[in-house]
Design goal:
Protein name: Glycerate kinase
Largest sheet: 6 strands, parallel
Domain MOFRL: 310-413
Keywords: Kinase, Transferase
Oligomer: single chain
Radius of gyration: 22 Å
Structural class: alpha/beta
Shape: globular
Strand order of the largest sheet: 3-2-1-4-5-6
Helix content: 25-40%
Strand content: 15-25%
Distance between the termini: 11 Å
Domain MOFRL-associated: 13-234
InterPro entries: GK-like_C_sf, GK_N_sf, MOFRL, MOFRL_assoc_dom, MOFRL_protein
Length: 420
């Protein structure tokens, strides 16, 4: 059993979180999922925060295969490769490099034959990193739509439904361009439910979303779009179906696997782990209140698990930004500040939450840690900072940020709450 003091419990939380991250290491995950080596050409494409590391792992696994290709990852997430070109682009809003990378990939898959193989390395973040606008819209249009979606409170699945209908590479259209070559898609999942259509907006996966669904999402969230963008969404096109492309989809790392790894480490420390789910969505601040209630129930009544315990959960929550704008923060630090405010210094409850890619939103921290004295270690008022969506600033002042740097993988957010 881990020692019961503040420093030891902080260390335990960090170790539990990092166990989840390490479980999704691209080099480990990719080795056992590779197909037979191709008879013809091997072209590698990919997008996401882990795609660079996945490309390096593929080169290491197949040193004797003549391969070429292009993958795009977030700025600061590139690694050294010999055969596969790695392009860095912006996240969470696309930039010119996102568009360039998309065009390069479409060029790479032209003119392939049946004996050729395309390896697609896909991970979370790819939706923003790939940008190939449909005819009638520009990159600036897509950037504006993406910014509006991020502020709307829409789920990742809903955002990607809209993104796919405005793209000529997402929603299976990269695989369509590669016909008749075989396309093998290796996925590190970051979305609730691990739906391959949603991860990076499924550039090599048959798509069931429609323009009507995208329009309904835009209207339901009250997203104001220029008329010419609405016109594009109102122009239906044939979806890419499973009969249109040859699919071989292999999910090599998932949020559920990360939670299982975290639970194993917690158990060895002497805690009883309870996994509450890997696909939890909703507003970050509201989830903080809910999780505080569960943690109090564990402490006071031993329900739904007796302490000492660790409550584990994953998924991707949202932060809806009002017209007044926001301070600095991400969905994990917002969740944690809400949790701290709801716990009101309840003794014996400690928590960590972070994005497994090492970047919570647009800040430089993966997340933060909450302890019983979180609300008393700074002059800032927690509830005021929460209302201003300024959670990063709060935890920076309290010294509780978790700084990992880019982890080169991404299986979404991991939350762990220790209840003594």
């Amino acid at each position: 059993m881990v020692q019961i003091n503040d420093s030891a419990l902080r260390g335990a939380l960090t170790e539990i979180f990092m166990a989840a991250v390490k479980s999704a290491d691209p080099h480990e995950a990719l080795i056992g999922a590779l197909p037979e080596k191709p008879r013809g050409r091997c072209v590698v494409v990919g997008a996401g925060k882990a795609s660079g590391a996945m490309a390096a792992a593929l080169e290491a696994a197949w040193p004797d295969v003549d391969m070429q290709g292009v993958v795009v990852t977030r700025y600061g997430h590139a690694v050294l490769t010999q055969k596969i070109r790695i392009v860095e682009a912006a996240h969470p809003v696309s930039d010119a490099m996102s568009e360039m990378a998309s065009m390069l990939m479409m060029e790479q898959v032209k003119g392939l034959r049946e004996e050729d193989c395309v390896i697609a390395l896909i991970s979370g973040g790819g939706s923003s990193l790939l940008a190939l606008p449909r005819q009638g819209i520009t990159l600036a249009d897509k950037q504006a739509v993406n910014k509006a979606l991020l502020k709307s409170g829409a789920t990742i699945h809903e955002m990607n439904t809209v993104r796919k209908q405005l793209s000529d590479i997402k929603g299976g259209r990269l695989a369509l361009a590669a016909r008749p070559a075989r396309v093998v898609t290796l996925i590190i999942s970051d979305v609730p439910g691990d739906d391959p259509q949603s991860i990076a907006s499924g550039p090599t996966v048959a798509d069931s979303s429609t323009s009507a669904q995208a329009l309904e999402i835009v209207r339901r969230y009250g997203i104001a779009l220029p008329e010419h963008i609405i016109k594009v969404l109102e122009t239906p096109r044939l979806p890419v179906t499973a009969s249109d492309i040859e699919q071989d989809i292999r999910t090599i790392a998932t949020p559920s696997g990360a939670l299982a790894a975290a639970a194993s480490v917690a158990s060895k420390m002497g805690f009883t782990p309870l996994i509450l789910g890997d696909a939890i969505e909703g507003e970050s601040a509201q989830l903080g209140i809910v999780m505080a209630g569960i943690a109090k129930s564990v402490k006071q009544h031993g329900v739904p698990v007796k302490g000492p315990a660790v409550l584990l959960s994953g998924g991707e929550t949202t932060v809806t930004i009002g017209a007044s704008g926001a301070g600095r923060g991400g969905r994990n630090t917002e969740f944690l500040l809400s949790l701290a405010c709801a716990l009101k210094g309840e003794p014996g409850i400690y928590a960590i939450a972070g994005d497994t890619d090492g970047i919570d939103g647009t800040e430089d921290a993966a997340g933060a840690i909450v302890t019983p004295d979180t609300l008393t270690r700074t002059e800032h008022h927690g509830r005021e900072m929460l209302a201003a969506h300024d959670s990063y600033s709060y935890f920076a002042a309290s010294g509780d940020l978790v700084l990992t740097g880019p982890t080169l993988t991404n299986v979404n957010d991991i939350r762990a709450i220790i209840v003594l």
